[in-house]
Design a protein that fits this description.
17% of the residues lie in helices and 48% in strands. The chain has 162 residues and is α+β, with helices and mostly antiparallel strands. The radius of gyration is 20 Å and the shape is elongated. This is CreA family protein. Keywords: Signal.
Length: 162
């Protein structure tokens, strides 16, 4: 009886759990503001959104990301595919402390930019020779990536509380 029940449950609930896992990404950025770029008669306007997030492994570094957000009806219901345009600026905002060992190319932030196939990602590199953290934002697509990208550098400097 339990074997039959588990087969029924797994066949019925597996797609549901896949959907929940795929579309329930936690919000890891704070929206700072936005500007409208194209007026839409129905649904929200196209806009550029400015978001802020802190590096989860590097205390004292904060990043700001600007990215396009598609409006209209498809944008309102989450079916639109946002363009791959993005810009990033990261700065030291306090004493820098590494919470864990850093890995080059490690994902710091990700944001889904289409229903299934595309996401915007920020990865971090550590340039030991220059004592600089380098952050790269790019668009990742299931079938092919995008050459559109932007970088920012954060020199690791002494911080005085004065």
């Amino acid at each position: 009886m339990s074997r039959i029940f588990s087969k029924i449950i797994s066949k019925k609930l597996t797609p549901f759990f896949c959907f929940v896992i795929l579309f329930s990404t936690p919000l890891s950025a704070e929206i700072i503001g936005s500007v409208d770029t194209v007026f839409k008669w129905v649904g929200p306007n196209h806009k550029i959104i400015i978001e802020a997030f802190d590096d989860p492994k590097v205390e004292g570094v904060s990043c700001h990301l600007s990215r396009a957000k598609t409006g209209g009806i498809s944008g309102a219901v989450g079916l639109a595919e946002d363009t791959t345009d993005a810009s990033i600026a990261c700065r030291q905002i306090g004493p820098i402390k590494f919470r864990e060992e850093l890995k080059d190319g490690e994902e710091v932030f990700t944001q889904r930019t289409s229903l299934v196939f595309k996401s915007m990602q920020v990865v971090r590199f550590f340039d030991k020779k220059r004592n600089v953290l380098v952050y790269l934002v790019y668009s990742d697509r299931l079938i092919e990536g995008s050459p559109k990208n932007s970088i920012t550098s954060v020199p690791i400097m002494p911080w005085s509380e004065g």
